[in-house]
Specification:
The protein is of the alpha+beta class. Helices cover 42% and strands 10% of the residues. The chain contains 17 helices and 10 strands.
């Protein structure tokens, strides 16, 4: 009869065959330290609201799988550089999706790898019970990966691996097998604070603690009007933010192209902004539906595209923005169009806002129209 160490080694060998870049093992004990972190996050109001499950469900594997004894953590590396990226130029301005949203939705890819691993284990040991999770499950992928020795948790709250930096997707499988655990890796950030210093909104309140409410990656996924203080800071980002990873020394010159599924389509990863304003739901899904950045739907992406066009002061977008302002039924989209027209700042843009304001009865949209018109008054007094 095989020992659990032998089973573990066979799992590791098979994981390499199916393209898992890194694998680690930990116990199914309660995540006590992470539990305290969650309690602190909630106390300070730092949580994003996207988290799934209660604190107990997020920290006690046995709640998620009765009889849980170990957790297998996996990591797949993704690219940090685009081959032949298209240029953003006058009249053809482009936005950017964060690297973690390039290529096929990682939830799909990692779940497929974990399902393969699950089938392999159950062929050998049919009695085993498992529970697979990728990002949207109750457990924290990062807490599991940290304890399983896949990498250490950096001050930017990302898991940093020796081989791939923090450019990795994470997933895990809870099992009823008592597999021998690996040892956590020692924290490697030291005195470095580059991520904290570079964060555009000061969302990294201290090393390893994130105020998600101020994080650009979170803000680009919200569906309401974006608070004024963050509009300029979002810049040309359509979805997500890479700043705290891009400045990390562990990511210097890291660019892995291990998986064809994660190779970006440049026209999707750096999309033309103006066409995004006129896309139907069907066209949006056909263009962006296969990437993880589409999970919140069309509304946030269109809103962010308009903010990016305002950032560029792209006068070629005025016709499309006026069309949105006059015809769109969504208050957040109409209001953001008015604000963007004001930022672009031509006489025609201001006239379009004034005309639309005569028929607008949504108070929130009217507030955005007033902001847009205020930009013209600011210009007049310069």
């Amino acid at each position: 009869m095989q020992t659990m160490e032998e089973v573990k080694q066979e799992i590791i060998a098979y994981s390499k065959k199916i393209g898992i870049d890194k694998i680690g093992f930990t116990t199914a004990d309660i995540f006590s330290q992470f539990k305290q972190r969650l309690i602190e996050q909630e106390k300070h109001g730092y949580a994003s609201g996207f988290e799934k499950g209660t604190v107990e469900e997020r920290t006690n594997p046995d709640v998620l799988l009765s009889g849980a004894q170990s957790i297998i953590s996996i990591a797949l590396a993704y690219p940090s550089r685009m081959i032949n990226p298209p240029k953003s130029k006058k009249g053809e301005r482009r936005g950017i999706f964060c690297r973690a949203s390039w290529g096929t939705d990682y939830h799909v890819v990692l779940r497929e790898r974990l399902n393969q691993l699950d089938a392999f284990i159950k062929r050998k040991l049919p009695h085993v019970e498992t529970n697979i999770m990728v990002d949207t499950g109750e457990l924290s992928d990062r807490a599991v990966a940290e304890r399983a020795g896949v990498g250490f948790s950096g001050k930017n709250t990302s898991i940093i691996t020796k081989e791939f930096g923090s450019y990795v997707y994470l997933g895990e499988m809870i099992t009823t097998l008592p597999l021998p655990p690996d040892s956590p890796i020692e924290d490697g950030c030291g005195d470095c604070t580059r991520c904290m210093d570079a964060c555009p909104t000061g969302a990294l309140v201290q090393g390893g603690q994130l105020n998600a409410q101020r994080c650009i990656a979170y803000l680009t996924q919200t569906k309401d009007f974006l608070p004024d203080e963050f509009r300029k800071k979002i810049g040309t980002r359509v979805y997500g933010c890479d700043t705290c990873q891009a400045v990390c020394p562990y990511n210097h010159q890291i660019d892995m192209h291990n998986h064809e599924e994660f190779e970006p389509d440049p026209e999707v990863a750096k999309p033309l902004l103006r066409p995004m304003l006129r896309m139907s739901n069907r066209e949006f899904r056909a263009t962006f539906g296969h990437i993880s950045g589409f999970w919140r739907g069309k509304n946030p992406l269109q809103r962010n595209a308009m903010i990016a066009l305002a950032h560029f002061k792209d006068e070629t977008a005025i016709d499309a923005l006026v069309e949105v302002l006059k015809q769109d039924v969504r208050p957040v989209i109409r209001g953001t169009a008015a604000w963007a027209l004001g930022k672009i700042g031509t006489d025609r843009a201001y006239e379009a806002i004034k005309e639309a304001m005569k028929k607008e009865d949504d108070e929130r949209v009217r507030v955005e129209m007033e902001k847009g018109l205020a930009f013209s008054r600011e210009e007049a007094y310069k």
